[in-house]
Specification:
The chain contains 14 helices and no strands. The chain has 347 residues and is mostly helical.
Length: 347
């Protein structure tokens, strides 16, 4: 989307209004059902997520993963390639990362093993992400259906790996989870993770705004007829998009293994980060530079939501209610932008 003063003002109005509406409806729900002062609960979210050591750490890890996933989705949605398979691609990135650790982790120094694990995570996500893109390019199968179904395949395959009779099941663990990764392969340095995130933002921004592929993505997103007239091979662009978005989601899965969970379990993607990434991507108006801001908002809500549940007794599921209301509000207000323009005398 072209960044102009008009677009900035319109987006500010749309998103602030949607946010305030979600806050208002959330407050009504908390007070009407739980009889808890709503602003006390909401302030607890922000303070615990940003002003406590544990909260900041959780918020940061959510931020890194959501930003990576959302960057890939932003590229996809610019071409109107509706990839909702971020969860499956994240899971396969984690699976490839675990396989790399089990197979070659002991053959290299810890840092080389970590780099190899991250690369294998990207490879796993890219391979899983390109499957629906190829099907779309060759058979014109709707990518919403194929990416959604591949999410379920990834979940059940992961569950089999750590099931009672699964090849990765840790016999010492009470839950369905794999053997843990070695402590030497923990990647918990915030500076390195921040550099990975910032580097990914820079690469995707350059790709989207400064390369021929980014131009082709914009043309396809604006008009298929124009793309055909310009001689753009839509199928090839879809395949590139599938590889890129899948690799970023797979990288997020690898970081989850190395930095947070350190195991693969049946509840590995219990937050459904891929679906949350859809929200943060739209909230950023598909702009790679704004993705980190929308991801920070969602990460704050997520980490603060667990404190709110423990202290105020408000279920963390309230965060998903809040997200849904805000998402629907944005869609409604986006559809009324032309009327807002007239009221503000932009057009």
């Amino acid at each position: 989307m072209k960044i102009t003063k008009e677009n900035i003002i319109l987006n500010f109005i749309v998103y602030i209004t949607a946010f305030l509406l979600a806050i208002g409806l959330g407050a009504v729900l908390i007070w009407a059902i739980l009889r808890i002062h709503p602003f006390s609960a909401l302030s607890l979210i922000v303070s615990s997520a940003l002003l406590t050591s544990f909260g900041r750490t959780a918020t940061f890890y959510y931020l890194v993963e959501l930003t990576l996933i959302s960057l890939g989705l932003a590229i996809s949605y610019r071409a109107k390639y509706w990839n909702i398979g971020g969860d499956g691609q994240l899971i396969f990135g984690a699976i490839f990362s675990m396989q790399a650790i089990f197979s070659i982790g002991h053959l290299f120094s810890p840092w080389l093993a970590i780099v190899a694990t991250l690369l294998m995570g990207m490879l796993g996500g890219a391979l899983y992400g390109v499957i629906p893109a190829i099907i779309k390019a060759k058979l014109n199968v709707n990518e919403v259906l194929s990416t959604l179904m591949l999410n379920f395949i990834a979940i059940y395959f992961m569950t089999w790996l750590v099931d009672i009779t699964g090849p990765w099941k840790d016999p010492q663990a009470a839950e369905l989870e794999s053997y843990p990764i070695p402590y030497s392969l923990y990647l918990e340095n915030p500076v390195i993770l921040t550099l990975i995130m910032v580097f990914a933002i820079a690469i995707i921004y350059i790709l989207a705004e400064k390369t021929s592929l980014g131009f082709k993505i914009k043309v396809i997103g604006s008009s298929h007829s124009a793309a055909e007239y310009a001689g753009i091979d839509r199928g090839k662009v879809y395949i590139y998009i599938g590889l890129i978005s899948g690799a970023l989601a797979g990288l997020a899965g690898s970081i989850e293994i190395l930095s947070v969970s350190h195991i693969l379990s049946s509840s590995f993607d219990s937050l459904y980060m891929g679906y949350l990434g859809i929200f943060t991507t739209w909230l950023a108006s598909l702009n790679p530079l704004f993705v980190i801001l929308s991801s920070l908002l969602m990460s704050t809500l997520l980490s603060g939501g667990y404190f709110m549940e423990a202290i105020a007794g408000v279920s963390v599921l309230f965060i998903y209610y809040f997200e849904g209301i805000m998402f629907i509000s944005i869609i409604i207000f986006e559809a009324t932008k032309s009327k807002i323009k007239k009221v503000l005398k932009f057009g």
